[in-house]
Amino acid sequence: MAISKTPTEVELVDARQVLQLHAIAQLRRLLPLYEATHDPQLLDEIQRWTAMLPEEDGIPMENFWHYLQIGLLIELVNQLWHDRSDYFAAGNVFVYYSPDQAEDVVLNRSTAYRGPDFFVVTGIDGEKPRDNWVVWLEGKYPDLIIELLSDTTADNDKNTKKDIYQNIFRTREYFWYDGDTEFAGWELVDGKYQPKTPNERGWFWSEVLGAWLGIHRSVYERRAFNWLRLFDREGRLVPTQEEAKRQAQRQAEQERLKREQVEAELERLKARLRELGVEE
Fold first, then answer.
1. First-to-last CA distance in the chain?
2. Averaged pLDDT of the chain
3. CA 120 to CA 87: how far, in whole Å?
4. From CA 149, how far away is CA 160, in angstroms rounded?
5. Side-chain half-sphere of 237: how many Cα atoms within 13 Å?
6. Residue 254 parent element (H or E)
7. Residues 213-224: tens digit of each pLDDT
């Protein structure tokens, strides 16, 4: 694990944490056995003990922008891949990848890694209900991660988390954005992150998404902001559900007006023919 716990710290635990620490001890025992045998009964036990791990920590998001931007990214990926069910896009949920890391979360250690702001995993059953992402159950780490920077998290996002995503997760693409102008992207090349090169608009191409990621001034949830948005291969904005609805309404209105214009022109021609004594 990239983040080490401090051996001298004194940790007070309550009854709930005692049960969760017992679950982690069982996972430490069962996971190597299952890896060696793939016994389905062991997997059932692993799932049962894993279900006892925390699903939230009660720590609020940095600000309301984080909440909206995460929701926007999830919605856009769902819009982009509306015809697919082989992916999981989520944000602000725990990602468990080892019993040691789970213990850090349970004990609320200051160095505990809990998860990214936003991530995407592909090649999985996307219709399976999930409250978090557990690597030892899913068999995969995230393929794409986005962290939303703040004054209190930027250093951790750019250093400690980047090391975790490169060296442990082997996440193919990593991006960060500060809600203003700082937007960077990285891709895994031979086990090391290399900076992505933006296009002339400052957008980064994502091989995972098959789309561009870029800053775009727009209105989302009645707030005008420099949102991180998706664009298709041709550079067209991937619309939110509300934007797609408005586009469909505008198109329907344009088609109605066009039909009315054609019908009016037809009536004018008919009237002219009658004036000339030509029967219809």
1. 85
2. 91
3. 7
4. 13
5. 14
6. helix 241-275
7. 999 999 999 899
Q: Strands 95-96, 133-134: parallel, antiparallel or unpaired by DSSP?
A: parallel
Amino acid at 6: T
User: DSSP states of 124-160 as a string?
Assistant: S-TTS--SSEEHHHH----SEEEEE--TTTHHHHHTH
How much is the average pLDDT of 128-139?
Answer: 96
Tokens of 243: 């934007």
- Per the CB < 8 A criterion, the answer to whether 227 and 216 are in contact is yes
Q: What percent of the chain has pLDDT over 90?
A: 76
In the chain the beta strands, taken as DSSP E runs, fall at 87-91, 95-96, 118-122, 133-134, 144-148, 173-177, 183-189, 192-195, 204-206, 211-220, 223-231
C-beta of residue 176 within 8 angstroms of C-beta of residue 204: no
Closest CA to 59 of 152, 167, 182, 158: 152
pLDDT attached to residue 60: 67
> The tokens 């990848």 sit on which residue?
97
Topology (CATH level 3) of domain 63-238: tt1808, chain A (3.90.1570)
* pLDDT tens digits for range 155-214: 999 999 999 999 999 999 999 999 998 999 999 999 999 999 999 999 999 999 999 999
110-114, 211-215, 249-253, 267-271: the lowest-pLDDT one:
249-253
Cβ-Cβ contacts under 8 Å for 230 (sequence gap 6 or more): 73, 76, 77, 80, 209, 211, 212, 213, 237, 238
Structure tokens that stand for 121 in this block:
């995993």
3 contacts 163 by C-beta, under 8 angstroms: no
Give the separation between CA 211 and CA 278, rounded to whole angstroms: 58
| CA–CA dist 149, 35 (Å, integer) | 37
